[in-house]
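Why do we bother with holo predictions? Because pocket geometry can differ from the apo form. Keep that in mind while you read this record for DP6.
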Amino acid sequence: RMHELLEKYPVGKVSYLTSSLMSPVYQVTASAPVNIACIKYWGKRDTTLILPTNSSLSVTLSQDNLRSTTTSRSSSSFEKTRLWLNGVEEVIKPGARLDRCLAELRRMRKENVEDKDPSVPKLSTWNLHIASYNNFPTAAGLASSASGFAALTASVAALYGLNAFPQHPSSSYSPPADASQLSLIARQGSGSACRSLFGGFVAWEMGKDSNGRDSLAIQVAPESHWPSLHALICVVNSGKKGTSSTAGMQETVLTSELLKSRIKDVVPSRMSSITQAILAKDFDSFAKITMQDSNQFHAVCLDTFPPIFYLNDVSRAIIAIITELNRVSVEATGHLVAAYTFDAGPNAVIYTESENIKTIIQLLLNYFPIDFAASPFNDSFQLFGVGHPSAA
Ligand code: DP6
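The structure, written out:
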């Protein structure tokens, strides 16, 4: 009977774990990578539904590193819903972000699957056991909420038969048509998470509705579109950041005048220009807009009262090095070679094309020599292609 049901409702990789007929356990594992925004999300117009004050656009990094992998299990025998992050059990606060995401997924399971076919197991009424791991390099110090909530949403959605993620990560991956619908849920876990449900180049459209039904992620171009584009992550500081994104962005909304003009006069045109640049694989425009938007994001942080500082002296030195490299390159060839961008912390992400990776790493090592004996190379630099989420 279980096998029949599973065949009828293929939901990614679902395993039937126990032999007890009274309490079968269903399980799905999914993984999602980190994404790095080129047009930054900073500010909410609704803090509960997580509706942003502006649209944003990011690149999903390749699977190799910096991803979250989440296994979700459902059984009528589980006494309560539990969550483990990197092996440590977390408290699930009623009404908080995770609880809201799970409530939405249960509602979708009930409406889209169980109400349509009363013979399927009522997973929406069963408790869940969820375990999530980040494979981040030990010293990455990079945000995990985007990949974490994306992997969690993808795995519970697949468990509930709400989408059809492929069984194995592969280059033939294409996002399920309803990943945008799932992005509505991941968004309520952490805004930037909605973009990690897609691979490649992803826009989060801010939407207009007060209920958030149109505030979702769409894929601008798949990861195969621009294979020569890479992201080099330079770990400047692996510690926890001072002001969290969630708290910082609301301070900005409340106090920054500059944010108002950014939202109204700047971001809408940048969204369309960078989309054009990506579609045309125009690195010069892509790089210029990316750097300008990072600069403006940190300018609105400075315009927040009291001000928020995420960049440090090393971050600013990296900006100076990349700026000088680009100046020399424009003089010689007319083209930019690299684009820096910084999120809510001092670590730099440098976008560049394959042929320039070596030059950039050599240049950075010149200024910031690494003691290879004390600090393995991998902890300080990480290189990524453009990637996609998957079921494992
Ligand atoms: C600077 O998505 O972490 O990385 O929605 O409150 O969870 P919450 O915030 P979060 O903010 C990310 C901010 C950013 C820019 C970006 O990724 O677009």
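Residues 37, 40-42, 50, 56, 143, 145-146, 190-192, 245-246, 343-344 surround DP6 (CB under 6 Å).
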